[in-house]
Structures are given as C-alpha cells and as structure tokens.
User: Fold this.
Amino acid sequence: MNDRNTNGARSVSDEVESRTPRADAARNREQLLTVATRVFMSADAEPSMRAIAREAGVGIATLYRHFPTRESLVDAVYKDQVVRLTSGARELLDHLPPAAALRRWMDLFGDWIAAKNGMLDTLRAMIDSGQVAHAQTRAELLTAISTILDAGRTAGDLRADIAAEDIAAALIGTFTVAPRPEQEAQAGRLLDLLMDGLRPAHRPS
Assistant:
C-alpha cells in the first residue's frame, strides 16, 4: 500500500511513525544522561562506561549508540549541568525571592562540582585539548550569579558589595572542604553560613 497521497505527500500515519522513533531515542538519551550524571556524582573514581550502562539497565551497545565515546558522554553531562546553572538562575528568580534563589542555586552548583569530580581526568584532558571551553563556562556561570545578585540588590535582601567572583570562590572552597555527597550535611551548613554573610546588616532604627 502506498503511504503517499495522490499529490505525493507523506500520510499523517507515516509522519507519526517517523517521529516516534526519534522521540523514543531522545527520551532514552535523556535517561542515560540522567543516570550518568548520578553515577558521576557518587563515584569515588571515574566510572567505566560499562558501569554506567549497568546502572542505567541497558547494554553497553545501547550506551555507545547514544554516546560513542567517553568524551562524548562527559561533554554531554558537563554541558547539561552548565545549562541547568545558567538557565536555572532566571528560573529560580521567577519562583523565589533572590536570597532563596541564590541558596538553591548554590545546591545546583554543588551538583555540578560533584559531577565534575566523577569525570575529572577526562574533563581535564578535554579542557587541555580545547574540546571544552573552560573560560566561556566560567563567564556564563559568573553571569548567572550576577543575575541573582542584581535582583537581590534591587530587592534589598542581598548585600550590594559582593561580586560574582566572590560567590564563585566561596562555593569552590566550600565544596573542596566538604565534597558532596559524602559531606552533604556539612556543605549545607557552610552554605547557610555563607548566606548569612550575604544578607544586608540590620541597621538600628
């Protein structure tokens, strides 16, 4: 039976069938990306591709079909986390006061650091080879922090004398001494202390 109409156009059923495999593939890739991120976050050492496939409940061939190399998987996880941070700043401000948005953004930053620690050797090699634009990523993250700081200054619930670079340095220091997920409770306490210092001092009336 011919799937085209008399004008040679594809039928509706043909279009639906062609879109379904692509949609399924996109969902499968997203699921693998989510699992890989979780494995990278919790790993003491850089996990094997086979370990990631096993955690995802798929065969190694399925993982390689979506991510042909370790570098392609690391690149996808890294970029996904950066997008969550850069777009997350504005999204958090849409739903939370600036100070609360910044505290929640700090947790997202901690997730990014934890994921980086699980793929550090590969990531370093990719940065050295120019496959990952580290300077651009840093600029994007500082812009995200500045977006929240600017909103906080306007609202009066964040200090006006703090730079985005100060926040970035404090967060890196926090997650260096209290890495997640092993020391998540301590990291949370340190982040709360940091937030206390970022709020304007109460002036006597």
User: Anything to note?
Assistant: The chain has a mean pLDDT of 85. The CA atoms of residues 39 and 167 lie 27 Å apart. The radius of gyration is 22 Å.
